[in-house]
Amino acid sequence: MAYDEGLAERIRERLGADLEISERRMFGGLAFLCRGNMAVGVTGDDLMVRVGPDATDAAVARPGARIFDMTGRPMRGWVVVDGAAVAEDGALAAWVDEGLAFAAGLPPK
Questions:
Q1: Are 27 and 48 in contact (CB under 8 A)?
Q2: C-alpha dihedral sign at 84, 48, 94, 4
Q3: Exposed, middle or buried by CB within 10 Å (0-12, 13-18, 19+), for 54?
Q4: What architecture (CATH level 2) is domain 5-104?
Q5: How many angstroms separate the CA atoms of 99 and 77, rounded?
Q6: What SUPFAM superfamilies does the record tag this protein with (predicted)?
Q7: Of 16, 25, 100, 103, which sits 20 to 30 A from 109 (CA to CA)?
Q8: DSSP letters along 14-52, please?
């Protein structure tokens, strides 16, 4: 599956030159990791965000968000945000910052 290179580039711009951030192809898309822990990613035209189990319900209540379910087994703590819902830079920034904050709080891998 291809992923939206434009969305990936917008995420790169938001993350800047942070040396703790790396990129890796995952889930048929592209993932951005903070110290080895996935924070956000791009799959198709959508944004994947790691919000953590405690923030899942609040996250899926936001526009365009749904539980991440790639294999028929929903993954609590992860959401997918429709690409149209992150068309504005402010919306994308909020999701990227949330995913980055959660991943940064995890022990490095």
A1: yes
A2: negative
A3: exposed
A4: Alpha-Beta Complex (3.90)
A5: 10
A6: YgaC/TfoX-N like
A7: 16
A8: HHTT-TTEEEEEETTEEEEEETTEEEEEEEBTEEEEE--
Residue type, 2: A
CA distance 55 to 87: 22
Domain coordinates in residue numbering, the chain: 5-104
Question: Contact, 72 vs 78, CB < 8 A?
Answer: no
How high is the pLDDT of residue 1? 59
Whether 65 and 79 have beta carbons less than 8 Å apart is answered as yes
Phi and psi, residue 16, nearest 5°: 65, -150
pLDDT at residue 71 in the model: 82
